[in-house]
Amino acid sequence: MESFPVINMENLNGEKRAITMDKIKDACENWGFFELVNHGIPPEMMDTIERMTKGHYKKCMEQRFRELVASKGLEYVQKEVHDLDWESTFHLKHLPESNISQISDLDDDYRKVMKEFAVKLEKLAEQLLDLLCENLGLEKGYLKKAFYGSNGPTFGTKVSNYPPCPKPDLIKGLRAHTDAGGIILLFQDDKVSGLQLLKDGQWVDVPPMHHSIVVNLGDQLEVITNGKYKSVLHRVVAQTDGNRMSIASFYNPSTDAVIYPAPALVEREEEEAGKGTYPKFVFEDYMKLYVALKFQAKEPRFKAMKAMESSPNLGQIATA
C-alpha cells in the first residue's frame, strides 16, 4: 500500500509549492488524513505540553481510571465490549469562550501553555482551510466563512490517555467513527502507536512521528466539498504496553452555522435535478443527531438531515 501522506509545510514557500499542494489535494481526496511537519508550532512547546499532559494524567487521572476499570470488571472481560472505550479524557473549550480557568485540577503552567498552544492551532487550522480552498477552486476564506455563523467557529480540545490494556482484542481504545466537525488537528504520542484509519477496506496505522501534527477531515467538510473530500472512519487500538497520549483539537462550525455544499462544487445537472447527495442543515442539529449515532455509519446521518431539510428550524436563514 502507498505510504501515509506526510506534508512538509516549509515546502509551501518556494519552488516545491505546487507539488506540496498536490500532495495535500491527494491526501484530502484519497485518505481524509495527513501528517504535518515543519508546521510552525515550536518543538519546545510540544515537549512541554507532552510532559505536562503525562504528568497531569499520573497525578490527577490515573487512579480514577483504575477505579473505573475495577468497578466495571474490565480486566476480566471474556467477550468484546461494544459500549465503552479504554480511554481517560478531559475536554477544553477555546472558542467562542474558554473554560480552561474553570478546570480545577490543572496547574497554572499547564493552563498557560495549553492556551498558547490553542492560539497556534487555531491559526494553523485557518491556514489549512485556506489551502483546501485553493485546491478546491474556492475563494480564499470561503471555508472559514462557512463555519462562522453568528458567533464564529467553535474550537475545543479533547485530551486523552490510553493506558496499557490487558485485553486489547476485546476492548478498543476508541471505537471506529468519523468526526462530526470541520478540521481536526492531533498532537499524538510519538512512541506509543494505536491510531488507525480505514482505507480501501483495510485498517492502516497513522505513524507516530516526533513533533508532527496529524490532520483529519470531519463530516462538515465532506458536506461543504460535496463529497470531493471525505471524512474517514478511524479508531484507536489499545496497547498492552505504554500509555498513549492524544491531544485532538477540533475546529468546528458555529452552532448556528448553516452547512451545505458549496455551489461552485455542485454539478449543474445535479442542481437542476435537485438530487444532491448532501443535505443543508444547522450544525447544532447535526451534532444532536451525532451524539446518539457517533459509532454508526455517517451515511444514515446525512440521510436523516436530508429528510429534515424542509424543517421550519432552517426557516429563511441566509446562506450566502
Automatic annotation (TrEMBL):
Record carries keyword Oxidoreductase: yes
EC number(s) per entry: 1.14.17.4
Organism: Psidium guajava (Guava)
Entry's family note: Belongs to the iron/ascorbate-dependent oxidoreductase family.
Listed name of the protein: aminocyclopropanecarboxylate oxidase
GO BP annotation list: cellular response to fatty acid; ethylene biosynthetic process
PANTHER family per UniProt: OXOGLUTARATE/IRON-DEPENDENT DIOXYGENASE (PTHR47991)
Keywords annotated in UniProt: Ethylene biosynthesis, Iron, Metal-binding, Oxidoreductase, Vitamin C
Gene: ACO2
